[in-house]
């Protein structure tokens, strides 16, 4: 599955809105797994910009070292990672959280991830992997829909029901598997359940054979700032087994990271 999800539409231009900057970010986001290198025309089509507008932005990004070209196609350079690293470096908690997650992975022998909520998506901020079990390439910065992921439903549980319903209504709610819930009322109920019990389990809704369980990471005020999860294979670790054998360790790790905040 390619990471092709786009952000919500930008607000209307105003005194506090720099349209050229927004368009530059739009151009950057047009590059993804499905389109790692694009022609000028392809960038213009993907962003809705004119060829002239897309060309000015691409050449500006090239002069700054964020884009390279072979004369026909453009692509991002490794320097673009500086933009994402600025977020991670401003949140030193994840440096302290990594050993906790590594210890959890060693204990449960499954992969562990941390993510935050961004609109209708989750964004991975840290991942400690044990085995590759998904076709999706999960790396820091990867976006996935919140409605069908354990991390997403756990993070949505920190919002009130009205906001949860709004976020779900704004989601595409694609049925990725025969198990995927797409009905808003059913999803609101699942989010409410996660809120009550303090954890969330997803059984093969994002990908066939994938099962995951998540717990909240909170700050001193009790506000959820991230969520932590464990992912495994359903045929190896059924939902009941994951809940009974891995949830205690996951909740303990999430609580330890919360204390580090």
UniProtKB/TrEMBL annotation:
Q: Which GO terms describe its biological process?
A: 3,4-dihydroxybenzoate metabolic process; negative regulation of DNA-templated transcription; positive regulation of DNA-templated transcription
Matching InterPro entries: GAF-like_dom_sf, HTH_MetabolicPath_Reg, PcaR_PcaU, Tscrpt_reg_IclR_C, Tscrpt_reg_IclR_N, WH-like_DNA-bd_sf, WH_DNA-bd_sf
User: Which residue ranges does the record assign to the HTH iclR-type domain?
Assistant: 18-78
Domain IclR-ED: residue ranges: 79-261
GO molecular-function annotation terms? DNA binding; DNA-binding transcription factor activity
Tell me the keywords, alphabetical order: DNA-binding, Transcription, Transcription regulation
The record's listing under PROSITE patterns reads: HTH_ICLR (PS51077), ICLR_ED (PS51078)
Pfam families linked to this entry: HTH_IclR, IclR_C
* Protein's recorded name: IclR family transcriptional regulator
Q: Which organism is it from?
A: Variovorax guangxiensis
């Amino acid at each position: 599955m390619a990471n092709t999800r786009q952000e919500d539409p930008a607000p209307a231009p105003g005194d506090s809105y720099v349209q050229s900057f927004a368009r530059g970010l739009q151009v950057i986001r047009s590059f993804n797994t499905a389109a790692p290198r694009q022609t000028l025309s392809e960038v213009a089509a993907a962003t809705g910009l004119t060829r002239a507008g897309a060309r000015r932005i691409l050449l500006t990004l090239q002069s700054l070292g964020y884009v390279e070209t072979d004369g026909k196609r453009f692509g991002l350079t490794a320097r673009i990672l500086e933009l994402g690293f600025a977020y991670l470096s401003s949140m030193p908690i994840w440096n302290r959280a990594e050993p906790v997650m590594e210890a959890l992975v060693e204990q449960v022998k499954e992969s562990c991830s941390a993510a935050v909520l961004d609109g209708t998506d989750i964004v991975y901020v840290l991942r400690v992997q044990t085995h590759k079990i998904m076709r999706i390439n999960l790396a820091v910065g990867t976006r996935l829909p919140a409605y069908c992921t354990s991390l997403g439903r756990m993070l949505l549980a920190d919002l009130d029901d009205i906001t949860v319903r709004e976020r779900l209504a704004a989601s595409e709610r694609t049925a990725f598997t025969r198990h995927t819930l797409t009905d808003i009322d059913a999803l609101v109920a699942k989010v409410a359940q996660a809120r009550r019990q303090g954890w969330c389990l997803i059984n093969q809704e994002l990908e066939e054979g994938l099962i995951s369980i998540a717990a909240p990471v909170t700050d001193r005020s009790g506000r959820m700032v991230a969520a932590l999860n464990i992912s495994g294979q359903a045929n190896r670790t059924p939902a009941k087994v994951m809940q009974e054998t891995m949830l205690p360790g996951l909740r303990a790790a999430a609580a330890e990271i919360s204390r580090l905040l």
